[in-house]
Amino acid sequence: RKEVEQDPGPFNVPEGATVAFNCTYSNSASQSFFWYRQDCRKEPKLLMSVYSSGNEDGRFTAQLNRASQYISLLIRDSKLSDSATYLCVVNLNYQLIWGAGTKLIIKP
Amino acid sequence: GAVVSQHPSWVICKSGTSVKIECRSLDFQATTMFWYRQFPKQSLMLMATSNEGSKATYEQGVEKDKFLINHASLTLSTLTVTSAHPEDSSFYICSARVGTGNNEQFFGPGTRLTVL
Question: What distance lies between CA B33 and its chain's CA centroid?
Fold first, then answer.
């Protein structure tokens, strides 16, 4: 079983729609959680940290469920520029463990 | 924000040659630098962690004699892929962190290596 699992997609979504991704992690001792965005052939960029209380940044909402060991990302009113691969990342003992990413394609 | 550069951004080389990749923190001093490798459609895999002035710590399965890491200063780390083979073709990304623990890592733009 992979330490961090994500649906690879691709998710093909019309512009303006709402889309959600989930990610599951295997180690309950994981300490902190993040969503990164990676464009094709580029480095990953931090999108947002994820907290149990949930956090929102504009059109993006992230949620952590420690009991079920999953993390979610919700994107509202999707834009063409949101097309990218979204990486779920878990910090375990100060080491980042990466999911393989979910590819999102926003269509006009 | 903190900026990390990598050089070269892409390289094509013949099998058997060695390739050096540089990672620099441009506007901050990085206590720790990390080297990752990413194959197409796969996750980033940590290869090694290096602290300035000490030997790098390699992840299981990563050959330290093949992937030489030098972290000579707080702003520069180098990764040398020795005797590269086609299976070493990948996207190599470095990141740099100030301090320890949960401090954010800042990523370089990556180096795409193609070994013919």
Answer: 8
